[in-house]
Specification:
Order of helices and strands of chain B: HHHHHHHHHHHHHHHHHHHHHHH
Distance between the termini of chain A: 30 Å
Structural class of chain B: mainly alpha
Radius of gyration of chain A: 25 Å
Helix content of chain B: over 70%
Oligomer: heterodimer
Radius of gyration of chain B: 23 Å
Shape of chain B: globular
Chain lengths: ~350, ~550
């Protein structure tokens, strides 16, 4: 059952269309990530859902209640939607305890106990409650912002790039902790981010946004393996895109015969492989014999970067390509484990596993 | 706290026409925790000895008036002191002064916050024009405001008249820092409060207003100190404060102990204000947390409140700008060509410009060692020295003048009423203005540039010249202009200290209006306003630019 329903939402800033017709439905208790390059309109969408601004057109309903319709909108303070902003937006003139208790009534029963409990839930020490926001680290500030938003028991939680200010190690652990926390509390969550890895790992539903519209919505796995077009494919991770001819569930491509995820037949198509689907095995020029559909390449570049190593492989033979010339001189760029990566000049045998995705 | 600190810091030295100096302790503290320490950490190094000696000398010189008050009190003896201080006249003056400050400051706060909010955060039609009109009254010296009012309403006098004219003359001192602080608020905080269930009114009280506290405290202190120091304004409307009483006393009995003891009480009042401000401001820190890009603030739709809001601005503008312009214009029209005695006006203008430029130069040169140390080699000693300068800068001009009169008469009579003494007085009074501008501009010339110049083969002095000096020159010039402006409109100290025969614009204005020859005074008022307007405009533009608009 759909909890948050958005339909036909548009918003203009002067002549610029920040949102050009957005539809989204979010089920109760789920986690949705909205991902897109900066300036795509994702923060605007979040602000419309939060009620900081009113849409030009379109409708937002939450749990059956209409929050915005056309130009009219329920103001933010009557929506009961929690927001955690990019930098936390803690009130600098209040202590951490008062920040967390900001949304509670002043004379509320057991206010202090409640604040301590919330601090504990988000993993903050009690001693921190007397301090001021500027004395806290970025990660702690985000936890406070989260506790503050949770204090009013929101129906929906909006996270606006809350992890982007944190350093890499902290980011992953914060993400995991927040996901678990909100899951336990049963709060429906929408995360806005420009980091595709964050979106894929955080959410059960990912919506890719571009130019004020959603270009694709689906589960993380679907989006990663079956992107609708090349832009989405490349936005969500490294992709190898090849021309191919497809028939009977197989593609003939510069990389040989590869199983695809469709039964269509087409003479000219583009298929996509994720680099991790291509395995390399060391061999030598002398070893380049065997069945004709075996594929060999020469390593032309190798860039070591610690745990990974980016390798460029030029194909030495290619089986039956529709337009082999196009791929012939363009090496495949693959990211492989840094350990034991083949060096420049080495000959490798390539094998493809899994199915390739055919762009529609 | 940092944004407000910069706002207050940058605004204070730029204020138009105070009779007394304007910088205050809060600015010092703010500077230390913000500007100076931030830059200092990066560039800490030891200051050359000669610089430290020069800075110490200036600070000690600045302490002279304070030392003088204490010395006089000690020398006079307790019996005489208590006889002079604990008498009905002093009580009367104290009541007057306290009431004046206690009534004017809160009214000014409410008015300024309302005006700042309307011009910065609402969809008021013509907000930019109104914002400029709220700053423009700074170009009119306080005594010219009073002159205009007394012409328009001849019966105006007493406490409430004092409150009225004070609020009108000084509200821009609060409007400027408050509106700058409003512009710099992070709108994400207001969004966050709204998401937590607070309506617009409660957001204003619980989130916006607390963050304006520093600006309000700083601005109120500034207004309070000006009220204590102002002379001309209250003479016109026959309202006695300590400052007017000191001048009266001085004119009748020269530098008798009575005047000196009144000055002592006035100084105590200043310290009470400084202390109050420190108490109210508290230990709050208003740092903007986080680094995300601030988004544009949304303006609140006024709806049906538009007309009353416009009315408030129209009335304020009419009172603060309309009245002076109409009266000056009226007198000029009435006086015709006769009041433009160009020989006399030319002489006054020349003398004023000479004093203003010489005083500005001296103040800037005196501020240089201090400014350099406070940016490049900050430390406890520098903080102490700088504190001395700012505290003295907050003393009324009449106190500094009285001190210098007494000292020259008793110790160095040949220096009494010489160019040297009046310039020293100006330098002491306006040193903080020069200091703050210099500091800000030296801070803009990072020490790395100096080092880069050295590494490119420039010897130390040349490196300093081609980087820091070049880069800080505009700031130094701005500081000098502000000091010059302050001197141009200064009245009390000039009257008491200037060499015989000196007649500045302010003095000429004052003597004509003292003879109730208001028409002859009008050209001088006109020239003072006309010369102040460009700087006020500069100030307005600067305050806009600070907020990145």
């Amino acid at each position: 059952m759909s909890f948050l329903e958005i339909s036909g939402l548009t918003k203009h800033y002067g002549p610029v269309a920040a949102l050009a017709g957005v539809d989204l439905s979010v089920t109760s208790g789920s986690r949705t990530a909205i991902v897109g390059p900066s300036g795509c309109g994702k923060t605007t969408l979040l602000r419309l859902i939060a009620g900081f601004e009113a849409p030009d057109q379109g409708r937002i309903t939450l749990d059956g209640e209409v929050l915005a319709n056309g130009g009219t909108a329920v103001p933010a303070y009557r929506r009961g939607i929690g927001v955690v902003a990019q930098d936390g937006a803690l009130f600098p003139h209040l202590t951490i305890g008062d920040n967390i208790g900001f949304g509670m009534g002043r004379g509320e029963d057991k206010r202090t106990e409640h604040i301590v409990e919330l601090a504990y839930i988000v993993g903050l020490d009690k001693a921190i409650l007397k301090r001021r926001p500027h004395e806290l680290s970025g990660g702690q500030q985000q936890r406070v912002a989260l506790a503050r938003a949770m204090a009013m028991k929101p129906r929906l939680m909006l996270l606006d790039e809350p992890f982007s200010a944190l350093d890499t190690g902290l980011r992953a652990s914060m993400r995991k902790a927040v996901a678990e926390l909100l899951e336990t509390a049963g709060i429906t969550t929408i995360l806005v981010t420009h980091d595709q890895a964050e979106a894929l790992s955080f959410a059960s539903q990912v919506a890719v946004m571009r130019d004020g519209k959603f270009s694709q919505i689906g589960t993380p796995r679907d989006l990663y393996l079956k992107p609708k077009d090349r832009m989405i494919a490349e936005f969500l991770g490294d992709a190898i895109i090849l021309p191919a001819k497809i028939a009977d569930g197989f593609a003939s491509s510069p990389l040989g015969r590869i199983a695809v995820d469709t039964n269509d037949s087409r003479d000219i198509a583009r298929i996509m492989l994720r680099p991790e689907q291509i395995a390399l095995k060391r061999t030598s020029r002398e070893g380049m014999s065997g069945t004709p559909d075996m594929l060999f390449g020469e390593v032309t570049e190798s860039e070591f970067a610690g745990s990974t190593c980016t390798i460029a492989v030029r194909l030495l033979n290619s089986a039956d390509p529709p337009d082999a010339a196009a791929i012939g001189n363009t090496p495949l760029v693959l990211r492989k484990p840094g350990m034991d990566a083949p060096a420049v000049g080495e000959i490798v045998r390539l094998t493809v596993s899994g199915r390739a995705h055919v762009f529609g | 706290m940092f944004p407000t600190a910069i706002a207050v810091l940058q605004l204070l030295p730029l204020d138009g026409n105070g009779t007394a100096s304007d910088l205050m302790q809060s600015a010092v503290d703010l500077a230390h925790s913000g500007l100076a320490s931030g830059i200092g950490r990066r560039a800490r190094r030891r200051a050359p000895l000669w610089l430290v000696i020069a800075a110490t000398f200036v600070a000690l010189l600045a302490l002279l008036p304070l030392a003088f008050i204490i010395w006089i009190a000690v020398q006079t003896g307790w019996a005489t002191v208590s006889a002079l201080v604990f008498r009905p006249r002093v009580g009367e003056l104290l009541v007057n002064t306290v009431l004046l400050v206690a009534l004017s400051v809160p009214i000014t706060i409410v008015l300024s916050v309302a005006l700042a909010w309307l011009t910065e955060r609402s969809d008021l039609p013509g907000a930019r024009l109104w914002a400029w009109l709220c700053v423009a009254p700074l170009a009119i010296p306080a005594f010219v405001h009073s002159y205009a009012w007394i012409t328009m309403v001849p019966g105006l006098h007493g406490l409430w008249a004092g409150v009225l004219v004070s609020v009108i003359a000084y509200f821009p001192f609060l409007y400027l820092p408050v509106s700058a602080a409003l512009r710099r608020l992070d709108p994400a905080l207001e969004d966050a409060a709204a998401a937590l269930g607070l309506g617009p009114r409660r957001v204003f009280w619980r989130v916006v207003l607390p963050q304006l506290r520093l600006a309000i405290c700083g601005g109120s202190l500034l207004v309070g100190l000006h009220l204590l120091a102002e002379y001309g304004l209250y003479v016109f409307i026959r309202f006695d404060t300590f400052t007017t009483a000191i001048v009266d006393q001085f004119q009748s009995t020269f530098n008798g102990p009575a005047a000196n003891m009144l000055a002592g009480v006035l100084v105590s009042c200043c310290f009470v204000l400084l202390g109050l401000e420190v108490l109210v401001r508290g230990e709050e820190r208003y740092a903007r947390v986080g680094s995300g890009a601030a988004r544009y603030q949304q303006r609140t739709s006024l709806g049906r409140a538009t007309i009353p809001s416009l009315l408030l601005l129209v009335v304020t503008t009419l009172l603060a700008l309309g009245v002076p312009f109409v009266t000056i214009g009226g007198w000029l029209a009435a006086g015709g060509a006769d009041v433009w005695r160009f020989d006399e006006i030319g002489l006054a203008l020349g003398q004023t410009l000479f004093l203003a430029l010489a005083g500005a130069l001296l103040a800037t040169v005196a501020a240089m060692p201090m400014a350099w140390i406070s940016i490049r080699a900050p430390g406890p000693l520098q903080r102490l020295l700088e504190g001395c300068n700012y505290i003295v800068g907050s003393l009324p001009g009449v106190v500094i003048a009285l001190a210098l009169v007494t000292i020259t008469v008793r110790i160095a009579l040949p220096l009494y009423q010489t160019l040297f003494t009046i310039l020293v007085a100006y330098a002491l009074m306006f040193l903080p203005r020069a200091l703050v501008s210099l500091r800000a501009s030296i801070a803009q010339a990072p020490v790395e540039l100096e080092r880069a110049a050295s590494s490119l083969g420039r010897p130390p002095l040349q490196a300093l010249w081609s980087t820091t000096v070049r880069l800080s020159a505009p700031g130094a010039a701005a500081g000098m202009a502000l000091v010059a402006l302050g001197i141009m409109n200064e009245l009390t100290a000039t009257q008491m200290l200037a060499p015989n025969g000196t007649r500045t614009l302010a003095m000429a204005f004052w003597s004509y209006s003292g003879e109730i020859d208001y028409a002859s005074a009008a050209p001088y008022a006109f020239i003072m306003v006309a010369m102040s307007l460009p700087l006020t405009w500069l100030l307005y533009v600067q305050s806009k630019r600070m907020a990145g608009r």
